[in-house]
Amino acid sequence: MSLQLTQAKSYGSTVLGDESCKDTAPLVTTRKKKVSGMALHYAVMSGSSVLAVIDTMGEWLADFFGITTPKYWYIVKEIEAQKALDKKLNETSRTSENL
Questions:
Q1: Angle formed by the axes of helices 25-65 and 2-11, to 10°?
Q2: Whether 53 contacts 44, CB under 8 Å
Q3: Which pTM was predicted?
Q4: pLDDT in tens, 52-95
Q5: Which end of the chain, N or C, is more open, meaning fewer C-beta atoms within 10 Å of its C-beta?
C-alpha cells in the first residue's frame, strides 16, 4: 500500500484509485517479482527444514536399530590389529638384534 501511495505522490496529478492512470503496470510487475521471490524463499526454507527433520529421524532410527557402525568396520579393525602386531614384532626384533 505504501508503494502505491509513493507512486501516486510522485506523479502529482494521479490520485490513488484513479482509473485513468496507466503507470501502475511496473508496480504490478514489481509486486509479482517480490511475491515470487518470497515464495522461493519459503520453498527453500521449508525444504531445508524438512531435510533436517528427515536427517534427524534417520540418525535416530539408525541408533535404535544398532546400525551405527560403518559397513566394513571389521576390515578396518583387522588392519589396525595387523599394524599393531607388525609394530610389536619390529620392536622385539630390534631388541633381539641389540643383544
A1: 160
A2: no
A3: 0.41
A4: 999 999 999 999 998 887 788 899 999 999 999 999 999 888 87
A5: C
